[in-house]
Amino acid sequence: GPLAADPEAVAGGAWVEGTPSWTVRVDVARDGTATAALDTGEGGRADGARGVRGAAGELTGDDALVLFTSGTTDRAKMVPLTHANVAASVRDICATYELGPGDATVAVMPFFHGHGLFAALLASLASGGCVLLPEGGRFSAHTFWDDVQAVGASWFTAVPTIHEILLDRSAAEYPGPELAPLRFVRSCSAPLNAATQRALERTLGAPLLSAYGMTETTHQTTSEPLPEWGPLKQGSVGRTTGVDLRVVDRNGRTCPAGTQGEVWVQGPTVTRGYLGDPDGTAESFTDGWFRTGDLGSLDEDGCLFLTGHIKNLINRGGEKISPEHVEDVLAGCPGVSEAAVFPIPDAHYGQRVGAVVVVRDGEILGSGQILQYCRDRLSPAEVPDRLEIVAALPHTAKGGLDRREVENRYAESKERRRS
Prior knowledge:
Elements: E1 3-4, E2 15-19, E3 22-28, E4 34-39, H1 45-48, E5 49-53, E6 63-68, E7 78-82, H2 83-97, E8 104-106, H3 114-126, E9 130-132, H4 141-151, E10 155-158, H5 160-168, H6 170-173, E11 184-187, H7 194-204, E12 208-214, E13 219-223, E14 239-240, E15 244-248, E16 261-266, H8 278-284, E17 285-286, E18 289-298, E19 304-309, E20 314-316, E21 319-321, H9 323-331, E22 336-346, E23 350-359, H10 367-375, E24 386-390, H11 403-410, H12 414-418
Parallel strand pairs: 1-6, 8-9, 10-11, 11-12, 23-24
Antiparallel strand pairs: 2-3, 3-4, 4-5, 6-7, 12-13, 13-14, 15-16, 16-18, 17-18, 18-19, 20-21, 22-23
């Protein structure tokens, strides 16, 4: 039968942590049925929890585990994954990176999400390789390179936030490619800006391969290939790995190469739907295809280029603006380590463009300089109407940008937040 992704999940009405961001309550009745709920933080436990009644009754003997989506643009959903889903995903990841007994990695991603569970842990074990778990149970920049040398790691996979941290500290802590030789580095779970990718490749002397995936597809959907199997295309997340992928217009018709549309995925790694959420399942699954909600385009070679997420688009007087595109430009500004873009309510335009950025330690950079950098590279509508420099940005437990928390914190002006 299926296993809980959180080993501490217990029955009998105890509150347990499904992830650091969501509290999960599981009540198991005598007849074996269960009720699960998420505390959304919108009130007390009773008022703020979204009950999912009878979810256990939807599980079958084919199900291996249940994972929660990260909940960055919506409430977290329960995703059942079968043994066949898991086996197909792990097989695809092993094949993509040619993992074998001679490979080793340091697991820095949490195992309650697919990135750490399937890519770092299970793919390594299935290929006969070695996995080192950090002593503290989570990523530590201070000990990371010691761990890499201790296990003889040939690769590692992480979110862009971790890559940024390693890059910022590389001058003081990276021992060099002679002492820590890497075959490749992988990035997934959030967009990786081009400036970070190029800088980290130069620093580590290894290719940094972007991958794309989500919980509903048992993690990996596409990936850039190892260099010997084809050229790396800047800004692409590569080709499909074991699934079928389409880019469709709003009428469900396949878009020609180079035309933006919604990314749909079908294949052996795709879940059948959401537990206890028939409306969410009907909205996101059509004739066996998973509608990701992500926007992108395919080139003539079948390489996928992601441009944003439908729910994230900012509507500035009818002009649809992708926050991810503006963030990529902001992150390319010398001295900027991370950026977040969000909508600001506006009586005239409906929404305006807001941005918050983090400046690298030791850099002296003003908002005026950053905005001028944007004006030289973005259309007038895309240039942030308001930009604020902050010490740090909020992230989800998986390491991705927490967009809802960014908007909650910064959509109002500084003056109104102080009042």
